Amino acid sequence: MKILVTGSAGFIGFHVTRSLLNKGHQVVGIDNINRYYDIELKYARLKELGISKDKAELLHLGCTGTLYGDQFQFIRMDIADRERLPKVFEREKFDKVCHLAAQAGVRYSIDNPEVYIDSNVVGYANILECCRHHSIQHFIYASSSSVYGLNKNIPFHEDDQVDHPISLYAATKKSNELMAHTYSHLYKIPTTGLRFFTVYGPWGRPDMALFLFTEAIVKGKPIKVFNNGEMERDFTHINDITTGIISVVEKKWTNQTKLYKIYNIGNNQSVKLLDFIREIEKNLGREAIKKMLPIQPGDVRKTWANIDRLIQDYEYQPITDIADGVKSFTDWFCNFYNIPKKETKA
């Protein structure tokens, strides 16, 4: 198939793009390469996808344009560009769209609301409009566990109420689900939303806890442990997330399939934050300097995904435990940044 992956230079988008290419699909990637975090990491991901550093340097200078690999085409643009985006759809004639581009981060949304509206609402609406006018077979998009807000039902189920988001980021993701529902109803577009639960692993984002903790520990700096460590997350390894996304992308939609679907995609268990930190310490051979702090605005104490629906419809089965998952990241981090490990603790 010919598949559009938005956010292809991002953490999840990169992994999904690489997997689709390995499975023989033709992929067009779109990313605006914004400066929310280190763009050199984004260019390093593109290099892994066959876009050389020399070619990427053209875009590093701020040019817009299109770069070609053997099987992968990369377009630097903003999905909020209402003039240019439809031209891409008209030219490329995609079979399916995997929409992973978004302004990420719960805490960043508290101080920078406008960028979330531009990307997660305006940009998302532009993608939906293009799908509407270009006969897209299936629109798959990233939602988030943050839509559950202060939900007290554990584990979180897709039928739980999600009408009380506690961050603007969560509100934009809830709006994405509502917009998808409307387009499915009005224009008969098959849409599938995936509520991601704390994705981690190699090539991860520098603003996420695993990256922040690892970087601070190797530098001998304190790590911020919110809610005094009384936090639990359904940490989901990127390999499991990618496998789940690819299953949804590749499965043929039939007339008997419900047009609008929402799924949790997680690891189906909750891990204590302090246990998570201990795994990082063990793999780095260093002890963290912990700065205990109160819970942050927009944070929730515990997340845990009920994944029964995804198992039933797509035979989804996460297989990466937290020990192996954290090790895969710390190994990548130390190799990528050329940091020697100390002796691993027993």
UniProtKB/TrEMBL annotation:
SUPFAM superfamilies: NAD(P)-binding Rossmann-fold domains (SSF51735). Keywords: NAD. CDD domains: UDP_GE_SDE_e. It comes from the Bacteria. Residues 3-266 form the NAD-dependent epimerase/dehydratase domain. This is UDP-glucuronate 4-epimerase. It comes from Arenibacter troitsensis.
